[in-house]
Write a structure and sequence with these properties.
The complex is a heterotrimer.
Chain A: H1 2-10, H2 12-22, H3 30-50, H4 61-76, H5 82-104, H6 109-129, H7 131-134, E1 140-141, E2 148-150, E3 153-155, H8 160-183, H9 185-195, H10 197-202, H11 207-233, E4 235-236, H12 243-256, H13 263-281, H14 285-299, H15 303-311
Helix pairs in contact in A: 1-2, 2-8, 3-8, 3-11, 3-12, 3-13, 4-5, 4-11, 5-6, 5-11, 8-11, 9-11, 12-13, 12-15, 13-14
Chain B: H1 2-20, H2 23-30, E1 36-42, H3 49-68, E2 77-83, H4 88-101, E3 106-109, H5 113-125, E4 129-132, E5 149-151, H6 156-171, E6 174-180, H7 183-197, E7 202-209, H8 220-226, E8 230-234, H9 237-249, E9 257-262, H10 265-271, H11 273-276, E10 280-283, H12 294-306, H13 314-333, H14 338-347, E11 349-350, E12 357-359, E13 366-367, E14 370-375, E15 387-393
Parallel strand pairs in B: 1-2, 1-3, 3-4, 4-5, 6-7, 6-8, 8-9, 9-10
Antiparallel strand pairs in B: 10-14, 11-12, 12-13, 14-15
Chain C: H1 2-27, H2 34-52, H3 55-78, H4 87-108, E1 124-126, E2 131-133, H5 134-156, H6 158-168, H7 170-175, H8 180-202, H9 213-227, H10 232-252, H11 257-271
Antiparallel strand pairs in C: 1-2
The chains are: A mainly alpha, B alpha/beta, C mainly alpha.
Chain lengths: 320, 410, 284
């Protein structure tokens, strides 16, 4: 068992990809699997900032929402092809990351969380009010992806399995990107900042710039998750931008194991699957989810995946 | 190198074993049944769960009625209820689940404007009939509409119009609106002003408040100062309960007549007799109509019999009608084939619970009566007897916005 | 006139923020269940009022009960998490709020309860510039008294001294032989008792339903941050300030009312991150 995990650690992107390729067969229906992909990516983007750099942001829904809305608006109001729409969504979210990051980096600790919360809410209201473009509180409807051709094959986006694999394609690219970042010198600096910011500063690194860079990357990845979500649901609900949505990213990361590579995905899977299954059994799903959550916070502070890793005695070197 | 292939092979075997035991295969097996499946996404949890649960009760009653009468060619109907948590993203996911996994034939549902629009977006792309059972102005408009979209419920224009036509001539022409600052509030005001124009009413002020406001004390002095004949509370659910209560507390009722576009049975029960005393409003249905409308009595009796004597609410009745219309259309079309069912629904003339109704062709809006009711606190025969029926505004296409106005080409 | 309604609203905020501030200052715990305790207090208030018919008695009973729940929470749920970092109690209380909301739903129904203004406080009275509801006057006066009471407790009694010392430096207090764990327990209980009290005080002015604590939570955090996370004076001043800002914007630009308090928070954080009365570098 240990050997398998060693292998997975070294080839984590490949392992993740393979697992995700069979994933829809493990889930009761594809739409749930796609939601897990999307939120897994969202949590992963968030985790770059939270788990690896120790910055707890409560406004990350702003980037999920920006990605969704800009992609949606590009398709609905400007008739752009979906590929370009995704690109615009990501760029918009990255830009948002630049602005919000720049403002937020000046604070630390709990104040950082509060500033991101406040700025996130301001973005929420902005989109809410821009009714003509965004549909206001009814959300944006009509995000369509017409059938298209790849190498002569007709691709029907409405087919749930086909949709899953197309979205998986983008998610895998993003995961690969995250893995590369974490394995690079930048990744080491990130973790160093989390452990002891002053020392990193003393070593001569530009901490503020690093923070801002990671903030932008994190925003871009969350933005991609948002773009894919718009295509998946055909709508963009306004509450994508609300702080409760940001809270979900926090919960998923902690549940899965912050500061681990696979953790956020595990967290997203468990949380969404649980919510789905528990909802079918009882109206009181909120209490059940709350209880399970409290249980994990109390007894598995490293999260599910984090605790599994710990149990297998993984070394600090292969940071997962 | 071979070690890695072994690992990968092992992974595949493990994955395969997991897949084989997963629920997915089980689902493929059950999808072959021959029942007519109707998906029913409603907010079972959240602030409107009481209304949603009534919708479920009434919908199940409709299904049972259909099945007991023999169904369609021996095929029974089945209701698949899902919780959309009053959340458009969740509603979209649930609808995807219903269509892709459960392979429902039709979808009926929801309770808020936002969720029904998102359900509609998913349904129309996949060419599934959706009969919406809650208020919305947007769903009739050409941007959201499709031939698969049907609207069983009232819309703000119809409701506000009926209440305006009753109240403005009776109580006065100087109107102040206290409006929740979101789409629903604005739509209601538009409906009132449109009807009011021909009656010579003037708007003194349209006071907006943030959605979900619990404290209306800031607005009371201003309202009093304007000295209107009528105060229109253009808000819904909790907001209505809160504002009604506070208007009472501030003593507004002594000088102003308070009306509201939609007066829900559940809101009245939650707010209590005192807060709502004398307030007048519109509704799609009130059980108390049974003494003048025979189909209402028939519906109430069936409901009381099935559910221990409780009476159906306004939203509940919509659940009942929404299901019956679709199933009757199936019978009339002699087919479950969607284009034929749509054609049958467009021709349908029905009277499930409140008098004659039909769907207008251009936007599939159900043309129906609007009931004007007034809340009472004295002479209540029992705890259900909370309203007096003042008037029934009959079904008339002229109360709707015209097809052109909504953007539909003839 | 608007100012007066703002002050009434602000009093509730001030009280809530005070509770949050005590818990945070002393325990370093960000209590995400504070809004839920507020909601529980409101429900219990209406319930006891229905049972006993006496508002003032209920006013006494509610904080005892919510404080009690708080004590249990601290002892069994939060205490194990000390030392793990600030995020864990926050997350735990977040989960707790879900559970509390659902428990209230199950116990009292999803619709909530109709709130009742006690007879003695119904109606409005002339305050010189116009008529203002009696109950809100009562609210302002009552919260002022409670806040004074708490101030007195903290400044003038021995326990208060320990609490103040403990928030500055828990290590020294421990060394001096005080059972810090007991103090933390007490403080959390007091904090949640205050939350419950604000709930029952607020209940006649709004509808009592299981979700009422959610927006309140965000607003309480805004107040705490604006005032300064460790400062009781800050909590009170900021509470009144936020209440007034909200009421005034509701009148002139209602759609922006909720936004306005977040903008206020963002502005304060960017210009003076420690809040109006907070100590610099308190939470770095």
């Amino acid at each position: 068992m240990q050997a398998i995990f060693q292998q997975i650690a070294t080839h984590r992107v490949l392992a993740t990809t393979l697992f995700l390729m069979v994933f829809p067969w493990l889930m009761p229906y594809e739409a749930l699997a796609i939601n897990i992909l999307i939120f897994g990516l969202f949590a992963m983007g968030f985790n770059l900032l939270f788990g690896y750099m120790g910055l707890l942001s409560f406004g990350h829904a702003a980037f999920l929402g920006m990605g969704s809305y800009i992609t949606g608006i590009s398709i609905v109001s400007y008739g752009m092809p979906w590929g370009a729409a995704i690109l615009f969504g990501v760029i918009a979210a990255a830009f948002g990351g630049l602005v919000i990051g720049f403002l937020a980096i000046r604070t630390r600790g709990i104040y950082f969380s509060m500033v991101t919360l406040a700025l996130g809410q301001i973005v929420y209201y902005g989109f809410y009010k821009a009714e003509k473009l965004t549909g206001g509180e009814n959300g944006l409807r009509g995000v369509k992806v017409d059938p298209f051709n790849i190498l002569g094959f007709k691709v029907d986006f409405l087919n749930p399995l086909v949709k899953y694999y197309i979205i998986l394609f983008f998610v895998v690219i993003a995961i690969w990107l995250v893995s590369r970042i974490l394995k690079s010198p930048l990744g080491s600096v990130m973790e160093a900042i989390r452990e002891n910011e002053k020392r990193v500063l003393a070593c001569g690194y530009n901490v503020a710039q690093t923070k801002l860079l990671v903030f932008i990357l994190s925003a871009a990845i969350c933005g991609l998750a948002g773009s894919l979500r718009a295509l998946h649901l055909s709508i963009v609900p306004i509450d994508s931008l609300h702080y409760l949505q940001s809270g979900q990213a926090v919960m998923m990361s902690i549940l899965g194991g912050m500061g681990t590579f696979f953790g956020p995905f595990v967290g997203a899977t468990v949380m969404l699957y649980l919510e789905d299954v528990v909802t079918s059994f009882t109206k009181h799903w909120m209490a059940v989810v709350g209880l399970i959550f409290m249980f994990f916070v109390l007894f598995f502070p490293k999260g599910i995946w984090g605790s599994i890793l710990e149990r297998l005695g993984s070394q600090k070197g292969a940071s997962k | 190198m071979s070690k890695k292939t072994n690992q990968t092979r092992r992974n595949i075997v493990i994955a395969g074993a997991a897949a084989a035991s997963s629920p997915f295969w089980f689902n493929i097996a059950t999808a072959q049944s021959s029942t007519i499946k109707i998906g029913f996404p409603v907010p079972l949890t959240g602030p409107f769960s009481a209304e949603a649960q009534d919708q479920v009760r009434a919908a199940e009653l409709a299904i049972k009625e259909f099945n007991d009468a023999g169904g369609f060619n021996g095929r029974k109907a089945e209701l698949l209820v899902r919780d959309d948590k009053l959340n458009p993203g969740e509603a979209a996911t649930r609808t995807l689940e219903l269509i892709e996994k459960d392979k429902v034939d039709y979808v009926v549902g929801s309770l808020s404007a936002a969720t029904q629009l998102s359900i509609n977006a998913v349904c129309k792309e996949r060419k599934v009939i959706f009969n919406s059972i809650s208020q919305s102005d947007a769903i009739n408009e050409v941007k959201d509409w499709s031939i698969y979209t049907f609207h069983e419920a009232l819309n703000p224009h119809m409701t506000a119009g009926a209440v305006a036509r009753y109240a403005f001539p009776k109580f006065g022409k100087k109107i102040v609106y206290l409006t929740a600052d979101y789409a629903y509030g604005h739509e209601m005001v538009r409906g009132f002003e449109r009807a009011g124009k021909s009656l010579g009413a003037t708007t003194l002020a349209d006071i907006r408040h943030p959605l979900g406001t619990s404290d209306y004390s800031a607005f009371m002095p201003r309202i009093k100062a304007l000295n209107p004949d009528i105060l229109v509370l253009c808000n819904f659910g909790r907001d209505l309960v809160n504002s009604a209560k506070q208007c009472t507390d501030f003593g507004l009722k002594s000088s102003v007549k308070i009306i509201t576009p939609v007066l829900l049975y559940t809101a009245r029960q939650a707010g209590g007799p005192e807060a709502f005393e004398g307030i007048l409003g519109g509704t799609s249905y009130y059980w108390g109509m049974e003494d003048r409308i025979p189909s209402a009595k028939a519906f109430n009796d069936k409901f009381r019999k099935a559910y221990n004597g409780i009476v159906p609410s306004d939203y509940g009745a919509l659940g009942y009608a929404g299901i019956l219309s679709v199933l009757q259309a199936v019978k009339n079309a002699k087919s479950t084939d969607t284009p034929r069912v749509i054609a049958a629904m467009e021709q349908l003339k029905y009277d499930w619970y409140k008098g004659p109704q039909f769907y207008r062709k251009c936007d599939h809006q159900s043309v129906q009566s609007v009931i004007v009711i007034e809340s009472k606190s004295k002479n209540m025969k029992d705890k259900n007897d909370v309203f007096n029926v003042l008037a029934i505004d009959g079904p008339d296409e002229k109360t709707l916005r015209s097809c052109d106005e909504l953007g539909h080409k003839a | 006139m608007q100012l007066l309604t703002g002050v009434a609203l602000g009093s509730i905020y001030a009280l809530l923020a005070l509770g949050l501030c005590l818990i945070f200052g002393m325990l370093g715990v960000v209590n995400f269940a504070h809004g839920a305790f507020f909601m529980v207090g409101a429900f219990l208030g209406v319930y006891f009022l229905g049972l006993t018919g006496n508002f003032f008695f209920s006013l006494l009973l509610v904080p005892i009960v919510t404080g009690g729940i708080g004590l249990v929470t601290e002892r069994f749920l939060i205490r194990p998490l000390y030392g793990r970092g600030i995020d864990y109690p926050l997350l735990l209380t977040f989960g707790l709020s879900y559970v509390l909301i659902e428990v209230m739903r199950v116990t009292f129904g999803i619709e909530g309860l109709p709130s009742i203004t006690p007879d003695s406080l119904k109606g409005s009275m002339n305050v010189g510039i116009g008529y203002f509801p009696k109950y809100r006057i009562f609210l302002i006066v009552m919260t002022a008294l409670i806040i004074l009471g708490i101030w007195f407790f903290i400044q003038k009694t021995r326990y208060g001294l320990i609490i103040k010392a403990g928030s500055r430096d828990p290590e020294i207090v421990k060394v001096l032989g005080v059972d810090v764990a007991k103090v933390w327990l007490l403080v959390f209980g007091i904090g949640t008792a205050i939350a419950g009290l604000s709930g029952i005080l607020a209940s006649p002015t709004r509808s009592v339903n299981p979700e009422m604590g959610i927006p309140i939570l965000a607003e309480s955090f805004v107040v705490t941050v604006v005032g300064g996370m460790g400062s009781p004076i800050g909590a009170v001043v900021a509470g009144l300030l936020v209440g007034v800002v909200y009421s005034l914007t509701s009148l002139f630009a209602p759609a922006l009312a909720e936004l306005s308090i977040f903008v206020l928070m963002a502005v304060v954080l960017l210009i003076r991150p420690q809040g109006l009365f907070g100590k610099s570098g308190f939470m770095s």
